[in-house]
Amino acid sequence: MIHVKAFIETHLQDLRSPEDVARRLNISHETLRKAFRREEKTTLGRYIPLRRIERMKRLLVRTDLYHYEICEAVGFSNEAHGARVFKRETGMTMSAYRAQQRGH
């Protein structure tokens, strides 16, 4: 799964679904789904958005990019969707997270 995770990290902004990962790696979706769950103890559908959130956190702290730019950079289809997922997973808005991490 190391190569799958590396592929996801490299192509995160372009991936639309777990099926997209399988198609691009030329692996059947079912084979990838089962192997990923067995080895990583989570689903690919859960792993991809969590990787996006982690990258968003880094960008919020390390850059002055606008929220829409960050959402776009990590592969969310629009800012509203990215902001909803970020808040659901972190319990904070993107602005609040940035302010907290920067000590404001």
Description of the molecule:
This protein is an all-alpha fold and about 100 residues long. The protein folds into 2 domains: about 1-45; about 50-100, Homeodomain-like (Arc Repressor Mutant, subunit A, Orthogonal Bundle). About 75% of the residues lie in helices and about 0% in strands. The chain contains 7 helices and no strands. The longest helix is centred in the middle third of the chain and has 19 residues, at about 45-60. It is elongated, with a radius of gyration of 15 Å. The mean pLDDT is about 95.
- Bulk shape: elongated
Distance between the termini: 39 Å
Instruction: Provide mean pLDDT, rounded.
Output: 95
List the helices and strands in order: HHHHHHH
Number of helices: 7
* Biggest β-sheet strands, sense, barrel: none
CATH architectural grouping of the largest domain: Orthogonal Bundle
Q: For this structure, what is the CATH class of the largest domain?
A: Mainly Alpha
Question: Which class do the helix and strand fractions yield?
Answer: mainly alpha
CATH level 3 topology of the largest domain:
Arc Repressor Mutant, subunit A
The Cα radius of gyration reads 15 Å
Please report which band the strand proportion falls in: under 5%, 5-15%, 15-25%, 25-35%, 35-45% or over 45%.
Answer: under 5%
Number of strands: 0
